[in-house]
Amino acid sequence: MDTKLKQLCQTLQLDPASLGLVKSNFPFKAHADFIEQIETGQPDDPLLKQVLPIEAESQVHPEFSHDPVGDLKANPTPSLIHKYHGRVLLMASPRCDIHCRYCFRRHFPYEAQINQRHWDSALQTIAADETIHEVILSGGDPFTLGETALVTLIEKIETIKHVQTLRIHTRTPIVAPSKAPIDAFLNWAQQSRLNKVMVVHCNHPHELSNKTQYCLNAYRQAGFQLLNQSVLLNGVNDREDILIELSHKLFAQGVLPYYLHQLDRVQGAAHFEVTLQRAQALMETLRKQLPGYLVPKLVQEMAGEPYKTPL
Ligand SMILES: *Cc1c(COP(=O)(O)O)cnc(C)c1O
Ligand code: SF4
What are the boundaries of each domain within the chain? Predict the structure, then answer.
């Protein structure tokens, strides 16, 4: 068995034989900060479930595919995805600090697609299209780039006059806050002309800690508007009380809920799916219990649609 998984089971006092683990070409990965937030002796822990490769993943499901959101069709320039008006997504890094089992990019040909040598042509494409006002750094996770490479890239983006907003999609401040970029990155942010948005990805209130608080505070003080997206996941966060607590806790850490995603139907993730009916019932309760600004938008990404589709 994977030695990291073995260590994890030891740390959490779990019997690996009882977990139904499988070998996967998208191997187990989680940072110590995330593991610290998992309860010991709880095989059903909602954080643990997000990272354990289990047998259910090997079931082939005919309605689940390898590229459910059509990303491969939407990137004529390597590393660049231009699906929506006014904004482009630049895949800045092929890596993440965690391997989320439900991830729609688990089958994406990352290494071939995402490489710093593609950046110049991606930046030329952006510079040549004045309708692009916002550049979204995504991945993988852009925060897995070294801080120097990250700041170099952002400074290049900043020289393109028609770009007004830089958005960073990252899970690092939630799942590995102690390694999130701070020094050079914050220096850049404090003096940048760009509007700055950071969309973090937190699915469960247990993912938030003093460490995430510290990290998020630093970004907020440097001028980032902080938003959160979650994925609705069976057995992880598909409960009213959990989603309500998540919104309140995010707000206490300076983050507003943005999207609650219906799962992308990626092969290997079928066991995480929540029915649309159940999702809508959850949303109805959230609207009744939360102030409007703490209610995320329930959306799904449909291949070929010009925006994330509200459900
Ligand atoms: C999700 C996404 C965006 C951002 O969409 P918003 O609705 O603005 O958050 C942009 N480009 C791509 C390719 C996306 O998948
Ligand atoms: S951090 Fe995001 S991109 Fe990376 S595995 Fe998790 S969901 Fe996928």
Answer: 61-310
Give the closest residue to 268 by CA, choosing from 34, 11, 22: 22
Domain at 61-310, CATH homologous superfamily: Aldolase class I (3.20.20.70)
- What is the residue whose two structure tokens read 């590229």? 67
- Kindly state if the Cβ of 106 falls inside 6 Å of ligand 1: no
Q: What angle do CA 36, 41, 47 make, to 5 degrees?
A: 45
105 lines ligand 1 (CB under 6 A): no
pTM exceeds cut of 0.85: yes
Question: Using a 6 Å cutoff on CB, does residue 91 contact ligand 1?
Answer: no
> What kind and span of H or E run contains 141?
none
Q: Report the C-alpha gap between 204 and 238 in whole angstroms.
A: 10
Q: How many CB atoms lie within 10 A of CB 270?
A: 19
Q: Which atom of ligand 1 is nearest to the CA of 307?
A: 7
Helix or strand run (H / E) with residue 299: strand 297-300
Query: In order along the chain (311 residues), what is the average pLDDT of each group of 10 residues?
Result: 92 95 92 98 97 92 78 73 95 93 75 74 96 95 94 97 98 98 96 98 98 98 98 98 98 98 93 97 98 98 92 94
Handedness of CA 253, 257, 262, 263 (dihedral sign): negative
